[in-house]
Design a protein that fits this description.
Oligomer: heterodimer
Number of domains of chain B: 1
Distance between the termini of chain B: 21 Å
Strand order of the largest sheet of chain A: 2-3-4-1-5-6-7
CATH class of the largest domain in chain A: Alpha Beta
Radius of gyration of chain B: 12 Å
Strand content of chain A: 15-25%
Largest sheet of chain B: 6 strands, antiparallel
Order of helices and strands of chain A: EHEEEHEHEHHEHHHHH
Strand order of the largest sheet of chain B: 1-6-2-3-4-5
Structural class of chain A: alpha/beta
Shape of chain A: globular
Structural class of chain B: mainly beta
Largest sheet of chain A: 7 strands, mixed
CATH superfamily of the largest domain in chain A: P-loop containing nucleotide triphosphate hydrolases
Radius of gyration of chain A: 18 Å
CATH superfamily of chain B: Ferrous iron transport protein A (FeoA)
Bound molecules: guanosine-5'-triphosphate, magnesium ion
Number of strands of chain B: 6
Helix content of chain A: 40-55%
Largest interface: A-B, 12 and 9 residues
Shape of chain B: globular
Chain lengths: 243, 83
């Protein structure tokens, strides 16, 4: 019997309850330190669900994955290079509009996403009603309501995670469409990006980052030579400039 | 409304409400301000200035965010009168 360990990443805005959820899931089985070469805290823990082993990483809380602070680079690089089996995006149910910015960014990077609508107890107190089925339909990924501090919703979340790692959930992440000018440039870049990065990285997302002149991403790609040839990154960058 | 009539967020005082019209800068700083929730059309409430006058705390999209003057200087809009 070959047993494998699944990797779960926790992403979300600051103060949405990621660490609270992390602690509920892992109990005391956690390890903290720094991310290699960064002054950003790295917390990793383990749990077992239905006889299967999971490793969970508590990513730094960020409003975005594009503004290039050390926190944002850590979160982005983990999602792109470590390719977690599932990324849990923890949203504050009382500030959905703000929190969806990051959720949409993550949906551009991976389709293995579960949205955790946390602080549902607070939302209820404030009279906020969320149509969860409709939100899930629009985003194209499962949405699970939680009140992590009260340990509410954990069983449904674990069940959804287990089904996702076993390939039992088909997701269709919402594709954000941009202006016509940008979409035309994406269309031109896509074949080039696919040629260079193959199936390894989400091509549309890489094309968008190139068009945005995201030098931090290029730098990161160049330092992952096993996945992405140095020349490839430079070449793709060159192409992005010329479209 | 013409640009000349727009006020800077950095000139708004604690207690005042402000509606963002545009972010007058490009690149990383613009991206950062948008990601923090300073999006055109959004309402911002000025909460308080730190003792030295900088940074200032703002309430925007259900969250408190502090900006330095060099950031809030680029956010233009109109003050909202309290009726
Ligand atoms: N009411 C309520 N409060 C919660 C819930 N989950 C977390 N909290 C509280 O929200 C606050 C922030 O929780 P954290 O778990 O530290 O949030 P975080 O996302 O790890 O924050 P950063 O690491 O700063 O990004 C804490 O005071 C928690 O007790 C919840 O479901 N309901
Ligand atoms: Mg935390």
């Amino acid at each position: 019997m070959n047993k494998r360990e699944y990797t779960i990443a926790l992403a979300g805005n600051p103060n949405t309850g990621k660490s609270t959820l992390f602690n509920v899931l892992t109990g005391l089985r956690q390890h903290t330190g720094n991310w290699p070469g960064k002054t950003v805290v790295h917390a990793e823990g383990f749990f077992t669900y239905k006889n299967e082993e999971y490793r969970i990483i508590d990513l730094p809380g960020t409003y975005s994955l594009y503004s290039n602070s050390a926190d944002e680079e850590v979160a982005r690089d983990f999602i792109i290079f470590s390719k977690p089996d599932v990324t849990l995006v923890v949203l504050d149910a009382t500030a959905l509009e703000r929190n969806l910015n990051l959720a949409l960014q993550v949906l551009e990077m991976t389709d293995r996403v579960i949205i955790c609508l946390n602080l549902m107890d607070e939302a209820k107190k404030k009279g906020i009603v969320i149509d969860i089925a409709n939100l899930s339909k629009k985003l194209g990924v499962p949405v699970v309501p939680l009140a992590a501090r009260n340990k509410e919703g954990i069983e449904e979340l674990l069940e959804t995670v287990a089904r996702m790692v076993h390939g039992e959930i088909n997701t269709t992440p919402l594709v954000v469409s941009y202006s016509r000018a940008i979409e035309e440039k994406i269309a031109k870049l896509l074949p080039l990006v696919k040629e260079v990065v193959g199936e390894e990285y989400p091509a549309r997302w890489v094309a968008l980052r190139l068009l945005d002149g995201d030098t931090s991403l290029l730098h990161a790609l160049q330092h992952h030579p096993h996945h992405f040839l140095k020349e490839g990154a430079t070449y793709a960058c060159h192409c992005a400039k010329s479209v | 409304m013409t640009e000349a009539k727009l006020a800077r967020l950095s000139d708004a005082q604690p207690g005042e409400r402000f509606r963002i019209a545009k972010i007058n800068i490009e690149g990383t700083m613009k991206r950062r301000l948008l990601d923090l929730g300073f999006v055109p059309g959004c309402e911002v409430t000025v909460l308080q200035k730190s003792p030295l006058g900088d940074p200032t705390a703002y309430r925007v999209s259900h969250t408190t965010i502090a900006l330095r003057k060099e950031e809030s200087d680029h956010i233009y809009g109109e003050r909202i009168d309290n009726e």
